[in-house]
Design a protein that fits this description.
Oligomer: single chain
Helix content: 25-40%
Strand order of the largest sheet: 6-7-1-8-17-2-18
CATH class of the largest domain: Alpha Beta
Bound molecules: adenosine monophosphate, zinc ion
Low-confidence stretches: 7-26
Mean pLDDT: 94
Number of helices: 12
Largest sheet: 7 strands, mixed
CATH topology of the largest domain: Alkaline Phosphatase, subunit A
Structural class: alpha/beta
Length: about 400
Amino acid sequence: MNRVGRIAIVLLLFAFPNFLWAQQTDTLRPTVILISIDGFRPDYLDSTDCPNLRWLASEGVRAEWMIPVFPTKTFPNHYSIVTGLHPGHHGITANTMYDPKFDALFTMRKREEVTNARWWGGEPIWVTAEKQGLKTAPFFWPGSEAPIGGKRPTYWLRYDGSMSYMARVRKVLAWMSEPPDRRPSLITLYFEGVDHAGHEYGPSFAAVDTAVRKVDGALGTLLEGLDIKNQLDRTNIIVVSDHGMAATEKDKTIWLDEYIGLDSVRTVDWGPIVSVWVDSGHVQPVFQALSGAHPHMKVYRKADLPDRWYYRDHRRVAPITLVADDGWMIASKRFNPWQRSDHGGNHGYDNANPSMRALFLARGPSFRRGVVLPPFQVVHVYSLLAHLLGVAPVQTDGNLEPFRKALR
Ligand code: AMP
Ligand code: ZN
Ligand code: ZN
C-alpha cells in the first residue's frame, strides 16, 4: 500500500471515530441534573452562606418559591416532582402510610416495601424517558429503587444516607464522563443534611448555616467538575427542595391521649399530621371526641379534606386526618418528640403555610438568565423535565405553563 493509502487508513481508524464522537457529543441533547436539597427553605438562599446556589440563581432562573404538595413530607413531594401528580393520585400519601387493601404499612426504612412497585403509582419521569429510549440515573430519588410499571432506570443505587456528599458528586461526574451511548440523559442527586439540621435545631440561620455550606460546597465541586469537562454550559441543572421547615417547641404540643383512648384507634405517624384509622362504625364518635378538642389541631373526616390538597381520593388516606397548625406537634405518651431537646423543627403541615415553601433554581442552555418566576406547584416540574429531555409526557396534574418565561 502506498503512503497516501496508509495515511487514509490511520485517519479512518483513529481520527474518524473521534470525529464521530465529537459530533455525537455536540448534537446530544444536554443532560439534565436534578438536585434535591431536602428541607431547604427558599429564604435560606438569602440568609445563609451559599455562593454556588446564588450563582445558579443569578446565572439562570429562580422561582420566588415552589408550592409543595400536601402533606409537606419528603416522599410525597419527591414523588410528585418526578410524576407531576398529587399524592392522592400517585399513592405516596405520606412517608409512613397504611394500605387497607394490602393490609401493610409502608415506611421509608422498610426496604421490602420501598423497593416494591405496588406502592408507587403514576409514571416517574425516568420511566417515561427510558420507555422512549433514553438512559437515566435517578440516584437516591424516592421510587428509584422499585421497578415501577415493570421498568427500572438504567442506573440506580440503594439509598445510603452515610455516603459522603463528595462520593455522590464523584458518581455524577463519572456518569457525565461516560461515552455518549452510555451517558444518562437524566441524573438526580440528593442531600439530606439541611433537613436534618432543621429538624434538630429549627430553621434559623444559625441552625442551618453549616449544613447549607456543606451542600453548597458539594455543589461547587460538581460545577467545577462539569466546567473542567467543558460540560457546564451544556448541562441543564435544576435545584429543588421538597418542603420547608417550621420551628417547633415543647410548649406547642397537642397530647392526643388527653382526648381519646389510643387503644381504640390505629394511629399512623405523629407530628404535624396524624392518620387515624377507625372502623366505619366508629368514625363519628372519634371525630366528635377530637374535633374542637384543641384550638391548634384541625380534624378532618376523609370526605371533608380540602379540595386544594387533591388528597382525599386515595384508599391510603385514613377516615380521619389530624393536621396541626404551623409549629405545633401532635404527640402522645407513645411518641414524645421532646426526649432530647425542647426545641426543633418540622414539616408536613398545610402546603399553603409560608414556612413550607420549597426552592426552585435552574441554569443551563435551555434557560434564560436572571429570570424570577412567580410561585408554582411542584407538580409542574415533571412537564419541564419531559420538555428538557425531549420526551412525550404522560397525562399529569401539571403543565409547562409556569416555565414559559424561563425557557429559551
Ligand atoms: P422527613 O424529613 O421525615 O420527611 O424525611 C427525610 C429523610 O428521608 C431523610 O433524612 C433521609 O434520611 C430519608 N430519605 C430520603 N430519601 C430516601 C430514600 N430514597 N430512601 C430512604 N430514605 C430516604
Ligand atoms: Zn424532606
Ligand atoms: Zn424532614
